[in-house]
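To the structural biology subgroup,

Please find below the input and predicted structure for Threonyl/alanyl tRNA synthetase SAD, which we are adding to the shared reference set this quarter. The sequence is reproduced verbatim from the submission form. If anyone notices a discrepancy with their own records, reply to this email rather than editing the shared folder directly, so we keep one authoritative version.
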Amino acid sequence: MRAYWDHPYESQFEAQVVRAWSEGGKHFAVLDQTLFYPTSGGQACDTGHLGGVAVLEVLEDAKATGPVIHRLESPLLEGQRVVGQLDWARRYRHMQRHTAEHMLGQAFLRAAGWNVVAVNMSNPVCTMDFDGPPDEAVIRQAEALANWAVYANTAVRTYFINDAEAPAHGLRRAPKVAGLIRVVEIEGWDRVACGGLHVARTGEAGPIKITRFERYKGGTRVYFMAGWEALELFEQEHRLLARLGEWFSSSPLEVEKPIGNLREEWRRARAENAALKDELAERIMRDLLTEFPTQTMAAQVPHSVLDMVGKRLAEWPGVLALLVAQAEDKARYVLLKHPSRSEDLQAIWEEVLKPLGARGGGALVKLGVMPLKSLHPALLAFQRYLAQER
Ligand SMILES: [Zn+2]
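Predicted structure (tokenized):
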């Protein structure tokens, strides 16, 4: 009933529903035969349609001894004959990933004696964990070996053996199952026990690209892409580099230099900007202290230095101030006082700023926004409030 093993390149089939049930709002079906590969051995399941109903997920038990279970978008009837159609583009990519995984497994063994510890092929960027320490030279050598195996375009065969025969077959790693063992052989290159689906010749799995590697659990985690997905990555990266090249009137592979220059320039400009703002804030504070000898002040300042001027003034003994600034389509304010002033900042805020639509808060320094039209009225209301006080 696992028809996908004998017909990995077929994507349409007919079958009978031998069991169908629903539980917890989910619908399931078992068929007399299926081309839908269930999630197992690091390979993600197929999706597609059964009798026009979407197949969302395909499952089997951990030992792969039970039936293949299809989870469906809506129920099917027991006994019903259905046409199954799987998403071939998705499946083919899975076959490319999986074959590339075998090729890399053997390539790392040949390059440095590394063994595969774990595999994840459920995403376009697949991972393989090895038992060797991270080593750039090993990575490059194994990648080259795997791609030579692609160009050799070797046949990939599968067959079953008994577990007793396994030692004689020189499998790359000991099989995890007992009894009947499915062997996947890349002729003259690699032989391993595997229940997954693979392309017919190694040329179909290329190109194989290792995109990144890192230390992982005492060994190395290798990230790779294969086949169409590797080509798509190359296409995306090439487009990005070409676009950046246009921005900088440079060739795609030479954009690093102008981008480096821009970064340097930006860092310098940022430091210069900070120093200039600092100087401006200091000057404005001095001017305000001269302009308002009573140290009670209401003034509009540039938005870019509002906070800095506010912070400086709040440290100046005897100061009570309302500063406002225009920030695009709204006004910002800082209402502050030095602890030596006896006024109740909260009371001022409630009487002067709140009626003008101000939002915000704070204890000795109140920061916030208000509608742009309240900018000048706020300064007048503040002055009026202080005049009443006296
Ligand atoms: Zn496999």
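Summary notes: The first helix runs from residue 3 to 6. Helices lie at 3-6, 88-112, 136-152, 227-247, 256-291, 306-314, 345-353, 375-389.

Regards,
Lab coordination
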